[in-house]
Design brief:
Elements: E1 41-45, H1 57-67, E2 71-74, H2 78-82, H3 85-98, E3 103-105, E4 107-108, H4 115-127, E5 132-134, H5 136-139, H6 149-158, E6 162-165, H7 174-183, E7 189-192, H8 203-209, E8 215-218, H9 227-234, E9 239-240, H10 250-260, H11 268-279
Parallel strand pairs: 1-2, 2-3, 4-5, 5-6, 6-7, 7-8, 8-9
Helix pairs in contact: 4-6, 8-9
Length: about 280
């Protein structure tokens, strides 16, 4: 596990060809390289079993192959985030174990489980999970509520970032995540979806006036023509590309964002930033 990614260059997809360099260290999964020399990482996928996140793991791998995506960070589906935490986390850990050079596991834990939630995070990280996923709208809490404090403190101690789903009306405001990040300055946060769509207008103020060192921004559901203004305001080192597959098509998402943020100009966004963050 000590030798991970080196600087390399690679063709990214059959639709748009680009040669980029990536230098990331301490990534927890070994990636086997043959002719490829650049790693593209999808920052959020849900290989689920039901409803709008139904996506067998084998189909996810086929999607990734079709888009020339080398790795993906995978997360539990909605029911597993809300109530079936242990079952969902075990399913994701098992899927990643089947494809250790392609899939990186996260874990979903409802903070309402209190001390049991902390123990579950400890268990999952010990088994290889590299990110904690919280979804306030699904899990039934407000991000700024102290119900999540113990879990967030544990994430800081274990050095795993916390992915907050944002965008849902009432409990998905980016400003709420910023307030939590201020309170938990030792915890690293990823703001999923940048507030899209209900709270997208929060983003300019945050990026221009309230940018924190412990907050990164994941771009799934962000309108591609808006993303360059985000990068201009905060710098590319704060952003992570994610498709949120299967709710979005990874190939389409890559193609659309590449028109506005060319892959060959932003290797950090398309893999480097996430590799460094989850590899700390």
């Amino acid at each position: 596990m000590d030798q991970l990614f080196n600087s390399r260059s690679v063709r990214i997809s059959s639709t748009f060809c680009a040669h980029v360099l990536l230098d990331a260290h301490h990534f927890p999964i070994v990636f086997s390289v043959s002719t490829k020399t650049q790693v593209i990482i999808d920052g959020y996928c849900t290989p689920g079993t039901e409803r709008d996140t139904y996506l067998p793991v084998s189909d996810l791998i086929r999607q990734m192959n079709g888009a020339d995506i080398d790795m993906a960070l995978i997360a539990p589906e909605d029911r597993e985030l809300a109530v079936n935490n242990i079952e969902g986390n075990d399913r994701i850990l098992d899927a990643a174990a089947q494809y250790p050079d392609r899939l990186v596991p996260s874990c979903g834990i409802n903070p309402w489980y209190g001390s049991n939630a902390v123990r579950e995070l400890e268990r999952c990280v010990e088994l290889g999970a590299r990110m904690l996923v919280l979804s306030p709208a699904i899990q039934g809490f407000i991000p700024t509520d102290d119900v999540a404090d113990e879990l967030l403190q544990c994430a800081a101690r274990l050095r795993v970032p916390v992915y907050f789903h944002t965008g849902s009306h009432g409990s998905g405001g980016p400003t709420q995540v910023v307030l939590v990040a201020e309170k938990h300055a030792s915890t690293n946060f990823i703001m999923g979806h940048c507030g899209s769509t209900d709270y997208a207008w929060d983003m300019p103020g945050i990026l221009e006036h309230h940018l924190l060192e412990n907050v990164w921004f994941e771009l799934s559901f962000v309108r591609p023509w808006i993303a360059p203004s985000y990068i201009e305001a905060a710098g590319s080192e704060r952003f992570i590309w994610g498709s949120s597959s299967p709710r979005n098509c990874p190939t389409f998402e890559l193609q659309q964002l590449d028109r506005h943020l060319p892959v060959d100009h932003h290797p950090d966004i398309y893999g480097g930033n996430l590799a460094k963050l989850i590899g700390d």
